[in-house]
Amino acid sequence: MSVRGWKYAAGLAVLPLALVACGSDTPGTDGSGGPAVSIDTPAPSLTPTQTPSATPSATPAVTPTTTPTGGPTPTKTPGKPVETPTPLKPIRLTNSMLLTGGEVAKGDPKRGWAATAGSASTPICGRGSTRGDGVLGALSRNYTNGLDASGGQWLTRYKDAASAKAAYEEILKTIASCKSARPAPTHARKITEDRAVAVGDATRIVRWYDYPLPSDQGSEDGGFPYAVTRKGAIVSVVAFREMGKGIKPANFEAIARSAAAHLA
């Protein structure tokens, strides 16, 4: 073989090595019997090569606020029904609701009590001790024993029981303060009785006692008992004034109970 033939043979021997070096590590065939050319394309990895970002790049879907049509609709548990107070029927005041002279005489016997014509005289603690605000009707009656004692009963009607209760409380405050009539300079005054009586919706007896100071020993003392009763939308006030200690507490309570019975 000539020198040129050796160079050609050597070139053929080097060519497969160069082709293999540019391809894969494992030689193969391409179906025609020649060496197959492999392209360095990486196979897909099962494990991602990059850690996904904590914040997704796409805007997350908004959760619907309404209940899906296919799901159950929540129901509210019904609460306790609100009680509506039944309004009171209007009540007209009549003379039959007032104490008679005979009932006063029976409650405080042997003193000659009788009813007299005309309106009752204003009691010691003033007109405010006989009525409250919002009066819709009023009646009164006067009583006397013809000697040293007199008194009266005042009935007032209001829009409803709540208004009557407010008037009742206001009347009691007025009696407790009794600012309308101050005692004489030589006299003093104090409450000697203040108690509840279980009759009507509410009843309270309060008694003022006016007495002379030591500097005026010859002056007379005086008793001024009140009985205030509330029943429904009506308030009754019975008030007496007389010389001395006044009507006995038990007798005055009996009169107060008779007055409350007229309101039932």
From TrEMBL:
<protein>
    <recommendedName>
        <fullName>PknH-like extracellular domain-containing protein</fullName>
    </recommendedName>
</protein>
<feature type="compositionally biased region" description="Low complexity">
    <location>
        <begin position="41"/>
        <end position="86"/>
    </location>
</feature>
<feature type="region of interest" description="Disordered">
    <location>
        <begin position="28"/>
        <end position="89"/>
    </location>
</feature>
<keyword id="KW-0732">Signal</keyword>
<feature type="signal peptide">
    <location>
        <begin position="1"/>
        <end position="23"/>
    </location>
</feature>
